[in-house]
Amino acid sequence: MKTRSFTWQSLATPFLAAFTMFTLTGCAIGGNLGDVWHNAKSFSPLAILVLVINIYFMVKIFESNRSMGSKILWFVVLWFLPVVGALAYYFFAHEATPKKA
User: In whole angstroms, what is the distance from residue 31 CA to residue 39 CA?
Assistant: First the structure.
């Protein structure tokens, strides 16, 4: 019988699922991605664009070969600073390549 040991990587899926849930339901406070989602529901073109770009970058972060700490840090930056975080990721985070299938 195989025993499961705790690793930080085992927290990745629940952590990413929680971020996705809060993003899609808008259950966040302050000027963050939850507010962007709320504005996107009113069909603001800019809010929809920011939301799509941030979801795209979150998927790229999840698929990257970065350390778990780096992934979490980029998620937090994208969550609390959607526009600035997306620009920062686009310009500064290109050194890590996606995992090969």
Answer: 11
